Amino acid sequence: MDLDALLRHFFGTDDPGSLTETEYDRAIERLKIGFGIEREPGRKFALWCLMDALDVAQLPADAFAKEPALKAAAEDYLKAAFRLERYGPGDA
Questions:
Q1: DSSP code at position 64
Q2: What is the pTM of this model?
């Protein structure tokens, strides 16, 4: 999935920071609904990653309670993101 396309679809812009608080909250709600109804695993994971980047994602155990493969992928993603944040790209 293309990040710019996701932002335009859910936020109506490539720059969510340009939205008012109300517009942003509505867009986050649309994103959460989109995640909740998505059935294709790759798309669902991509939406969860976007929500994580925006700091609104559920923990993997909650988000993917019925999808063990996606739960494991999300946990791996969080571990890798933590290593990058802590050690930087050269040491992760």
A1: T
A2: 0.88
